[in-house]
Amino acid sequence: MKNFTKVVYFVSVLDLLFSGCQTGNHRANGSYELIKSQLKLLAVNFKVAKTLTTRKDVVTIRSLNSDGTLNLIPSKDWCSGFYAGSLWYGSILTGDTELQKLAVEFTTPLEQEKLNGKTHDMGFKMMCSYGQGYHLTKDSVYRDILIQSAKTLTKRFNEKVGAFRSWDHSKDKWQFPVIIDNMMNLELLFWASRQTGDQQYYNIAVKHAETTLANHFRADNSSYHVIDYDSITGKVLQKTTHQGFSDSSAWARGQAWGLYGYTMCYRETGIVSFLYQAEKIAAFILNHPNLPADKIPYWDFDAPEASVRPRDVSAAAITASALLELAQFSPSKKDFYIKSAETILKSLNKDYLSKPGENKGFLLGHSTGSYPQHVEVDVPINYADYYYLEALVRQNNFNHLKK
Ligand code: GLY
């Protein structure tokens, strides 16, 4: 783990040097302390809740239930890697070694997922936990686990469709569903290709991105949530939603996954059609008439005006992180992307950040997991915290590069 000390030292020095450049108010109001204390509080609350539950398989936390209790989850849940990832990012931001210890503690129980071929969510689970851990520590055990995870994920690729199958559930509804979220799992394959020298990981990741580009997007560059394919002929059978307002609506988090996914695919491949798609998605999101002034979207861009129209803070956090990366690739739009990301982060810091001790230790409130299913509506969710912290890390690095 020796490299970790170097990374933390480097980032801490950057923090000291460039604290004056911070555009959000997170440093001014001392919220790096808040990040530390909230992340630790969540670990304490998890440990207490684990002693009170009869469920033996829970390894981490996902969100707050509507009664304010912690939603505990097993490693197979698609969200199992985010809290571990937040701890890794928290340790980078603050240099706190206790957070690093906790990161290891919450990463380790996910190992068995490396052989779980029943889900496309391998990237979410393993890159956010083991991937961040490997990035910092260069621990070869983490590397081996990640390579096995990538190998397992390849089994879900269908040559005829040219994509990875997303879900195995709801076989009565879809034959071969591919969701826009699946773009996020490709990063693991690009990483595995570089690590092993095996071009096949790269090829199938690119193919998935190309198939998604061909079929998921509408003329206005918003995306459908679910495309259902015929697994024998590869033809598109239907274009639908699962978590959006309607089949033809723009589900907020789906747009954010697309933006992040194509930005990452351009970083990994240099294929310009991926960059153009990311820019088009950014334009759709940032110029949308229904995007509130604070740039925290409602849960769906087409959700009707109503007395209750929840926001989705997670979509905003993912978007902020993606824009800070996209800004590096788009010189002519760089300022617009950075300003937009800064507006999002300022809004999150001002109106959505927990006060000390609030929300059992989650950092951000007001995310919406799945409005149509009445699941996790307007609550703290771990992936919002993860992408928020990633955006802060990227903002720090960006400010360093500017100098
Ligand atoms: N990947 C599932 C979601 O974004 O809710």
Short description:
With 403 residues, this protein is mainly alpha-helical. Helix content is 53%, strand content 9%. Helix 5 packs across helix 7.
What is the 3D shape?
Answer: globular
Give the CA-CA distance, first to last residue: 30 Å
The CATH class is identified as Mainly Alpha
Hetero ligands: glycine
What's the pLDDT, averaged over the residues? 92
Strand content: 5-15%
Q: What is the alpha-carbon Rg in Å?
A: 20 Å
What is the N-to-C succession of helices and strands?
Answer: HHEEHHHHEEEHHEEHHHHEEH
Q: List the uncertain runs.
A: 1-30
* Major pleated sheet: 3 strands, antiparallel
Number of domains: 1
User: Which bin fits the share of residues in helices?
Assistant: 40-55%
Per DSSP, the total helix count is 13
Describe the structure.
- This protein is mainly alpha-helical.
- It has a single domain (about 5-400), classed as Alpha/alpha barrel (Glycosyltransferase), CATH 1.50.10.10.
- It has helices at about 1-20, 30-50, 80-95, 95-105, 120-135, 140-155, 185-195, 200-215, 250-270, 270-285, 315-330, 335-350, 380-400; strands at about 60-65, 70-75, 155-160, 165, 175-180, 225-230, 235-240, 365-370, 375-380.
- The strands form 4 sheets. The chain has a 3-stranded antiparallel beta sheet, with no helix packed on it. The chain has a two-stranded antiparallel ribbon with strand order 1-2. A two-stranded antiparallel ribbon has the order 3-4.
- Helix 5 (about 120-135) runs antiparallel to helix 6 (about 140-155).
- The relative contact order is 0.12.
- Glycine binds near residues 78 and 243.
